[in-house]
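Session log. Operator J.P. requested a structure for one protein chain; no other inputs attached. Running the standard single-chain path with token output.
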Amino acid sequence: QTGLLPPIPAGFRINENNYVFDLESKAIFGEASWDLNENWSATAGARYTRDDVHTRAFGVVGFESPEPDNSGDESFSDFSPKLVVRYMPSTDLTVYASYSEGYKAGGVDINSGISKSFEEEQLSTFEVGFKAMLADGRVRLSGAIFSLDWEDLQVQTNFLADPTDISSGVTKTLNAADADSQGFELEMQALVSDGLTWSIALGHLAGEYGSFPNINLPGGNTADLSGLDLPKTPEWTLSTVLDYTRTIADSDLEGFGRFEWSYRDKAKGDYEGVAASQLGLPDFPYNIDSYDVANLRFGIRSDRWRVNAFIENLFDDAYYSGTSDNFGLAGIRVRPHPRVWGVSLTVMTGE
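Structure written below.
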């Protein structure tokens, strides 16, 4: 065998990092609700936040080459409002609309003795939805349409400052100029019969970067993600669950079972997957193919003990649910999900 690195002497420091991250956050918030009449109500709120961020690096060594200590300080503040309006024409139906803003503090990255600040992230969310009770309360139905708009979206990347030097690893937080996402959700829960409930959920999501021309990627690559899909964002998701419980005759025992099935549409696995066409990369493993998976849980329980069995990935489908960016000798990591089964016994003691 031929190693990728020559023999390393004992005590040789390939990489030693010592970082301190301090965040002092102060906030004041409140909200008020009004019943405008018997059908209409409104809620208004706001939050003011101030964050003081301090980052310090000391004793950093790469391949026995020490780097100078460094530190950085930044302060951020934000005012985020919230407004919700509800219409309740009956006790079985609620329709609502909401608008809110959110915020994530910025910070300071320190690499190779150099500190660089990144900006805070701003999020605006608008949602319209409903909640309804049908069939004398045996069916619950809810749905929502939503839109999310980010400004200065924070994106963390890992790459080699020098592609030929594995000791030049850099972790950097970039601000995409803007990004947005729109979608809808539908959910239903139904009491099919005594002890048997059925639920189903459908989701649609479409998200993309507005302007993001300068992302750094492993391998010394750069890419323009403007107008491309957000990573880890499947366009369609669908899931269904059957839950059954039944009391075993003339006993305090209860049997239970749960069957779960879910579908997830194809998605970009990471930032390299988003830029795959620009970089000439294959789909695998940078992009995640669509997959569906089933799980089964069942058992018996009483007031004092429980036996629970489970099988995850019931039909032993071959799929992977994600990848992650890496650099240097790490390559690309893939998260597969083989069939897993197990049995557990739980006993409650004491009063």
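Operator note: Residues 271-274 form the longest helix (4 residues).
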